[in-house]
Amino acid sequence: MHPTVDEQLTGALRLLDVLETEDELSTGGQEVLTNVRRLLGKVQRSWAAQLPFHTTDNAELTTLLNRTAPLVDPGLVPEDDATPPLDAVAVATRNAELRALLSRVVTGLPRTPEGDAARAEIGDHLRHRVDTDPT
Amino acid sequence: MSDESTDTLHRLQDFLAGQEGTAGTRIADLRRAGAGRSRENWLFDLVGPGPQDREPLILRSDPDGGLVDTSRAQEFAVLRALEASTLPTPRVRWLDATGAQLGSPSLLMRREPGTCDYRVVNGDRPETARRALAESFCDLLADVHAVDWRGLGLDDVLVDPGEQAALHELEHWEQVLRADQLEALPELDLAIDWLRTRARPARRTVLVHADYKPGNILLEGDRISSLLDWELAHLGDPLEDLGWVTQPLRAGEHLIDGAWTADDLVARYTAAFGLEVADDELRWWVVFSTFKTAVMQVSGLRAFTEGRSDEPYRPTRRVLATLLAAITED
């Protein structure tokens, strides 16, 4: 079990702390170090939450597309999901595919009351997604 | 001196040797400027030929991966045209439009006196001084918009989109998005849909700075000495700049809590420029500004993933949340 992902990331950040105390580090080097720290910090804060987030978002997106895609093109309704549920990469890929379908729905919605209701529903979904995205 | 500095020095020496008026001069104090977000800047002095001759210069070159892809030749032409105006702009000296000699498209211009502080409006000065600065920034924006662009020949350099300025800008930034996005971004597609259906005709066509902010204004004490970074300048709707400076994402740079609000800024601008600003017209440009910020982040992300930039940009939660909140308020 050890070192866990968190322990390794914490260790990497600690090693960067060591490097940051070097007197001879140039301004450019310090900027690079800051960016590495930001990236590792983001990974540390989000890696464990990504799979459950994408799983939930995929379910919500599928429901949303089943309701809104027929207004544009029934071919944009997602097919049944055969993604292995514990395969984090496959679930993230499925998420990107569903979001691509949603983009096509957004750009094709009619200027009708039904289309406007779909836009509002999609807007609500996206706001919730942005608020809860751990990445 | 680093390999990079040596390489830049040699390129500059070769380039300047071929330019008029540089006989008997030499380059002194060459050093890289602080990390610019979209340009690679080098500072140096051109010394000679007389014993007292010393001209402070800046070399602005395209980086491998920036937030925006713009033309050095166009920026040079705009700045050269503006030298005949009363605006405080830096004097341009030479251009390498293709980068054949300097390695990448570059322009050289006079280094004007003063310092930039993008947070100066909320900095250490007393509130009355900060408000006075904010007012002077607002007045300068009105001066930019009052420039006689036809008289200066800027219509030879820049496209006049006429009353379709809003759709013209939206189309441009959508093209940037399509070229740079790595994945579907329905948040931005929803914003494009909102913007396209609500675009209003421009009531005036002016010179738009398009990145107007204290971070692009040089100050000597409390006096504005120069307005910098004209790489995004174009002809368009004056409300574009006004939307940029009043957008919530930029409030910390332009507004002072309780002392200088967006309404204060718009009222002073209206008085200075003589253009009544309708709330719904300005709102469109505020939303557009947030959309443009998101697109710039998308471009930055592509540059980072392709190894052309060391800045790990990405469309941030703050920008996307602000954008979605604005377009779902109806």
From TrEMBL, chain A:
This is Uncharacterized protein.
Automatic annotation (TrEMBL), chain B:
Coiled coil: none annotated. The keyword Transport does not apply. The keyword Nuclease does not apply. GO terms for molecular function: kinase activity. Residues 30-262 form the Aminoglycoside phosphotransferase domain. Keywords: Kinase, Transferase. This is Predicted kinase, aminoglycoside phosphotransferase (APT) family.
